[in-house]
Amino acid sequence: MVRIELLSADNFKSDSLDNYSRKQDVKKVYRKHNGEYILVDCVYTEDWDMEKRRSVAKNISSDDYVTYLAIENDEVVGFIGLKKDLVETYMILDLMQVSATCRGHGIGRKLFDVGKEEARKAGAEALYISACSSEETIAFYKAMGAELTDCPIKEIAENEPYDLQMICYV
């Protein structure tokens, strides 16, 4: 059974993501064409090497984040990392992942719901998401109630030009 817990020194260490499976086989992505987003073929595999896993572990356990973990059999199988400092009225959902072996079982929804609650507690009006443009990722965020924003945060959008900028009101 999967538990959702606030990241702490008791449940997370620098090597807690060493066995984490980030793998995602992407076939289609959204790209802007004539002012509209359309799906286009773009086949690649997204995965993390050990350096990336350790870097993500360091980031989500820093004081800059509020992070919740999905834990099964004492292994991290998912997480949501929220930036503590609000930008305008947004809480930034910076990182959200569910292990490849655990997708499709409602873990992402549970993490997202906890993220929305955390944003409400922080006084945010919405979660801001710079989302990977893959078909599956965008379908997930839309199912959670997120929508494309007309007012992207410039710095985030410029740093991730292929991401779709979305918000989800809390």
Task: Summarize the structure in words.
With 170 residues, the protein is an alpha+beta fold. It has a single domain, classed as Gcn5-related N-acetyltransferase (GNAT) (Aminopeptidase, 3-Layer(aba) Sandwich). The protein is 24% helix and 38% strand. It has four helices and nine strands; from the N terminus they run βββαβββαβαβαβ. The chain has helices at 50-60, 107-121, 135-143, 154-159; strands at 3-6, 24-33, 36-46, 65-72, 75-83, 90-98, 126-131, 147-148, 164-169. The strands form two sheets. The protein has a seven-stranded mixed sheet with strand order 1-4-5-6-7-9-8, covered by helices on one side. A two-stranded antiparallel sheet has the order 2-3. The longest helix is centred in the C-terminal third of the chain and has 15 residues, at 107-121. It is globular.
What is the CA–CA distance across the termini?
27 Å
Number of strands: 9
Major beta sheet, specifics?
7 strands, mixed
CATH class call: Alpha Beta
User: Can you tell me the overall shape?
Assistant: globular
Strand content: 35-45%
Number of helices: 4
* Mean pLDDT score: 96
- CATH topology name, in short, is Aminopeptidase
The ordered H/E elements are EEEHEEEHEHEHE
The low-pLDDT segments are: none
Describe the strand arrangement of the main beta sheet, using strand numbers: 1-4-5-6-7-9-8
CATH superfamily annotation? Gcn5-related N-acetyltransferase (GNAT)
Q: What class do helices, strands and sheet pairing give?
A: alpha+beta
